[in-house]
Design goal:
- This protein has seven helices and four strands.
- Helix 1 packs antiparallel against helix 2 and helix 3 crosses helix 4.
- Strand 3 and strand 4 form a beta hairpin.
- With about 160 residues, the protein is an alpha+beta fold.
- The structure holds FE2/S2 (inorganic) cluster (FES).
- The site of FE2/S2 (inorganic) cluster has 11 residues, from helix 5.
Length: about 160
């Protein structure tokens, strides 16, 4: 069930998207941002109903893009380290290893206090400043292991 804030956001988007199907990504984002931060099965079904498309189509979009948190909650800080080729050529694996070491979690896990989650993702469109990661809405670029520690400490 979508909350009123989400419905209002979707109504606003509908003005710009006469074809309801084109609204699926915006609707998913609104539901995630205006809700609990996690897209539930009920959210996906409600969006499908509202946009008059099948739940499978909504689920396909939601699970394709890493910006959506589908079914699984993430920590307050969602760390997404790019591991695509340009970032990997500049040692993204070292960045992942440093986050894992600093937080004591593995890729795909959340710290016990629910503060940090770590995932590796495909290109985030910032290849020129590789290696890089995104934490919530912020990009952190030209990373080194030391920089990773400084960033994580600033979030403690
Ligand atoms: S490959 Fe990492 S941002 Fe593009």
């Amino acid at each position: 069930m979508l909350n009123e804030k989400t419905l209002k956001a979707i109504r606003n988007l509908e003005k710009d998207y006469p074809d309801k199907r084109s609204l699926v990504m915006g609707a998913l984002w609104a539901a995630q941002r205006c809700g609990s931060g996690v897209l539930t099965k009920e959210d996906l079904e409600s969006i499908a109903e509202r946009l008059d498309i099948s739940p499978v189509e909504v689920q396909a979009a939601a699970t394709f893009y890493t910006m959506y948190n589908v079914l699984e909650p993430v920590g307050r800080y969602h760390i997404q380290v790019c591991h695509n080729i340009p970032c990997n050529l500049l040692d993204a694996e070292q960045i992942v290893a440093q986050v894992e070491k600093s937080l004591g979690i593995k890729n795909g896990e959340t710290t016990a206090d629910g503060k940090f989650s770590l995932t590796t993702v495909e290109c985030l469109g910032s290849c020129g400043t590789a290696p890089m990661m995104q934490i919530n809405d912020e990009y952190y670029e030209n990373l080194t292991a030391d920089k990773v520690d400084q960033i994580l400490e600033s979030l403690e």
